[in-house]
Amino acid sequence: MMHGTMQDYPLLLNSFLDHAARWHSDAEVVTARGDGSTDRVGYGALRDRSLAVSALLSSLGIRRGDTVATLAWNSQAHVETWYAVMGIGAVCHTLNPRLTIDQLASMANQSTARVLVVSHHLRKFATELVKHVPSLERLLIIDGEISDRVSESGTPLAYLDDLIGGATDGVSWGGFDETAPAGLCFTSGTTGAPKGVTYTHRSSFLHTLRILQADVMAFTKSDAVLAVVPMFHANAWGLPFAVPAVGGKLVLPSRHTDGASLARLIEKEAVTVGVGVPTVWMGLLEHVEATGAMLPSLRRIIVGGAPMPPALMARLEERLGVVVQTSWGMTELSPSGTVASFSAPDRAAHMAGTPAIGVDLLLTDADGCELPGQRNVEGHLWVRGAAVIERYFGQNFAATNAQGWFPTGDLARIDGQGGLIITGRSKELIKSGGEWINPAEIESLVGAMPEVSQAAVIGRPDTKWGERPILLVELRSDARISDEEIYDRLRDRLASWWVPDEIVRLGAMPLAPTGKIDKLHLRERYGLA
Amino acid sequence: MMHGTMQDYPLLLNSFLDHAARWHSDAEVVTARGDGSTDRVGYGALRDRSLAVSALLSSLGIRRGDTVATLAWNSQAHVETWYAVMGIGAVCHTLNPRLTIDQLASMANQSTARVLVVSHHLRKFATELVKHVPSLERLLIIDGEISDRVSESGTPLAYLDDLIGGATDGVSWGGFDETAPAGLCFTSGTTGAPKGVTYTHRSSFLHTLRILQADVMAFTKSDAVLAVVPMFHANAWGLPFAVPAVGGKLVLPSRHTDGASLARLIEKEAVTVGVGVPTVWMGLLEHVEATGAMLPSLRRIIVGGAPMPPALMARLEERLGVVVQTSWGMTELSPSGTVASFSAPDRAAHMAGTPAIGVDLLLTDADGCELPGQRNVEGHLWVRGAAVIERYFGQNFAATNAQGWFPTGDLARIDGQGGLIITGRSKELIKSGGEWINPAEIESLVGAMPEVSQAAVIGRPDTKWGERPILLVELRSDARISDEEIYDRLRDRLASWWVPDEIVRLGAMPLAPTGKIDKLHLRERYGLA
Description:
2 copies of one chain form a homodimer.
Chain A: H1 14-23, E1 28-32, E2 38-42, H2 43-59, E3 67-71, H3 76-87, E4 91-95, H4 101-111, E5 115-119, H5 123-130, E6 138-142, E7 157-159, H6 160-163, E8 181-186, E9 196-200, H7 201-211, E10 224-227, H8 239-246, E11 249-252, H9 259-269, E12 273-276, H10 278-291, E13 300-303, H11 310-320, E14 323-325, E15 327-329, E16 336-339, E17 359-364, E18 378-385, E19 406-414, E20 420-425, E21 430-432, E22 435-437, H12 439-447, E23 452-462, E24 466-475, H13 483-491, E25 502-505, H14 519-526
Helix pairs in contact in A: 1-2, 1-8, 2-3, 4-5, 7-8, 9-10, 10-11
């Protein structure tokens, strides 16, 4: 029997910053302050600072397997904290500041976080939160200006910068197994109770190598990548790992994600790729359309997290001269599932791309039986891979079936070229007169109308049919369209019984903390009989 | 203590073909026949055939950990054999047909190969070889035409196609650990006895993910990749893994690697990327320069395995309108170390690129002590990574130092931007009057002369100085240059004592079986006192 004799080289996440510091020491992480100025640091210096944070955490008693929570926007200090926590084998639990104290307390109590690292701007919120989380011993503030500092005696609050010293001799990164946990993120819970996903060093490392492929996110050292997607939302889709890994510039907007702020940052930092949910690009587009701003450096926009309205995609590509890469993913997938290739000839808003090596997809019927052929047929989507969840945090049973497939809850079709098209959420299907209506298909038609900014379809209980669809629309600020016009356009394209019973106009579509349309809220408000 | 809860998804090499068959079933592997015609197969059908070969090997008693040797050119059947062997956990030992029977017998006896898969064209050679390798039970011929078949009774020879049946129900791929051995390749032995490198599924999988990055080889599903580098030479630099992994077209020249054959294949298959050693591109260039052929589909040429002459690089880029990506690697590195980025602003023949994530480089002095700063200083090059050798085949001691670094035997410099420049081989340094002369620097100057096709500098024992350099040159077919002219150009650029004592004209530079200049042979013929 022959034995393999290649080096034992564990896949640890700190390697990304180690590599960047060594090979791209001067490439920068840039953070917007909101006033047009920026903070910037090279990867070499960032690694030094991050090691100092590791030393601080060690001095506070944080050990391998302990949890450190963060409640922070995308910033240099947040990136430093991530690597500081993960590098010593602790677990970084990212909390979403857009959730309520109750929701966050429930999550932090589950993870038994001992330290909370919080953006200056969120310190009051955090001070409230800490009262509900007995395990939290320390609250460390980042992102604050010296001039901002307040003395708040009697709280466990301290500015992280004040505590870190120069000595990092006793601290080193790595030395543990690649299957060790590195991060914890709870799902958005738009359709149920949030559940935790525990990423490992190996899973996020392999996720990074997957998205770096030329047919996926394809970042290079020449790129300046604007990470609008928050670090508390499924690892900012892996950008704080992937961009240092190739030595690209990582551009962080902090909490300043309005169109004007993003446009200024893109121009100033010569951003080449923007990454975020569709709504932020709508804000950017409205800004540039209103001001006539030009963003010549921007070549690509990678969108995900919610369906991409075709009209928005067309306007972005036309007005900004960019290529929009649509994608599909979820927290349970680390989070990238598929990304439409930059060079794909069949790019379209509804097309989510073909899986790259390391992700397997399967379509089944409602009973979980594999659909024959797998192509040009709609089914329930299952997924398998090194960056896919096996079981949720705190659960002792698998989230997968016996063959290791994870049920995404999405409905999908795969076309003849292997392109994935998400057609809806299985839980959102509306059953009318014993037949299924898919809200996503109606939303896609309405969303394509140039007057419409956002559209949502929900089911409402109906005594005769069981359920009937209701359409909720938010128009673009300068647009008008009558209900009759909407109905006219829908009647050509939909079976008559799919046409919604009612159209509700909303001034602003309610969004969940992750930026997706909050259907839970819509159902409570408009979906009752 | 928190536990990671992501899926257990082993990194096995059969996944590449599984993925290609599932998602890029119609993308093709194309093999040149030499008469202008080609064989072609989609990944879906190729996987079916490969499973049938697995079934055949199983029926011949091949089990996990057993060795199957191949002695074959780059062809579809060779690719099928690779996946068939590796998929069932056996080890694929690639033999180089350009070596002697004695050399091959020594290697095959070390690996105790039980089956030899051989190209039709090499069957007589293989029949000789098998007499010297007692462990070889079967000889299976691939790449043969029906019309070619000969009956040779009394030998263990059979045509593989005649033996494979339809039933593959009992065969499946995978189910073993990712650290299992997958391939065995011996070093070229241009400067010493060949040593075996045992690749594992994990090491070659991670190597593949590395070269697929946008800043490395950057293959996409839109690419047609011409693999001129042989499969018996360090896994054809990983192309039979990387190209199916993204669903690109894999174009194989078989043994027809002359300029005319390559040009015809590139044109016919709309090849976008060519991969091979510098000499094959010289052949292609001379053909297109002589015939006026145009190859508009070709966008990139990736070269490695030997220093790239600057004049050849300039001519290729100018005449073919391609970007030449230089690289550095070795069998012990699976084999890619660094590749110059497609978009690198500092592309140059001597520049080998910056390491991608997963490869660490270190420069030391002759005693193995780390050089301070690591930049703009010449040193001995060490390497570390998941695809780097830990120990040679059959050896029970590490090939690395105590910190896990593998000594490459190369001399190198790293510039301020992290670009690697190989400056020579430590074993080839010439000691003259107590000082070192680096042959590679002289070769680089001579190689840049437009009249020169290839240049080599070796040391010759000298009673007064210890050693003195001798220059051997092969001119381009239509070129003339006197010794005096060569000396004139060198004197401007070299210290006087570096100028070679003698210039020897060669009609053809002797090449080792891997296509590199055979310095062992040159030293025996011209390097004696």
